[in-house]
Amino acid sequence: MVELNPDYLPSYQENLRERFTKKMIKDWDRALPLSEMLLDRWKRAELLGFGKMTSVYDNAYIYGLSNLTVGERCWIGPNTIIDASGAELVIGDGVSIACGAMLFTHSAHEFCVTEGKKPFLKAPIEIGDHAFIGSGAIILPGVRIGDHATVAAGAVVTKDVKPRTTVGGIPAKVIK
Questions:
Q1: Residue range 40-174, CATH number
Q2: CA neighbours within 13 Å on the CB side: how many for 169?
């Protein structure tokens, strides 16, 4: 059995983390996971084929890239899930998707409860230009969010949201 010296392995990584954390606090008044301090969010978006000046955090989970279109100047926050593996998912220009939001183009609920007698639900999602998706919001398959619409934090969106409308709650209902 190989014994690890607890002082050896962490020394290099911890030194790196300490230096980056101190710089991040000094420059930006924040502390992030090491990968977020080392990796460029805009470069990740570029590598994924997203629009110009779009930012996507390293810890955002992105599925179904062949079905996914993301516009320019979007912000996809930390701990988000964007799952286009079931159907097309289109995100317009200038969209902000806050921390922990989840977008799903498929669901296995009917397949599961019918013991496979019904198929997986698969339906597209469309997010209009300059829409805001709040922290922890969930967008279910088949939903269209209009231009300049706001989805409140924690909302579960099961139906279309008209342009310039704010929705919230479970299920999401018009607030204004």
A1: 2.160.10.10
A2: 10
Joined tokens for residue 64: 């179904």
CA distance 59 to 36: 8
Rg (CA), the chain: 19
Amino acid at position 58, single letter: D
Q: How far apart are CA 26 and CA 28, in angstroms?
A: 6
Q: Which two tokens stand for residue 99?
A: 């921390």
List residues with catalytic annotation.
109
97, β-bridge pairs: 76, 133
pLDDT (tens digit, 9 = 90+) per residue, 6-36?
555 567 778 888 888 888 889 889 787 777 7
* pLDDT, position 6: 58
Domains in the chain: boundaries: 1-38, 40-174
- DSSP collapsed to 3 states, the chain: CCCCCCCCHHHHHHHHHHHHHHHHHHHHCCCCCHHHHHCCHHHHHHHCCCCCCCEECCCCEEECHHHEEECCCCEECCCCEEECCCCCEEECCCCEECCCCEEECEECHHHHHCCCCCCCEECCEEECCCCEECCCCEECCCCEECCCCEECCCCEECCCECCCCEEECCCCEECC
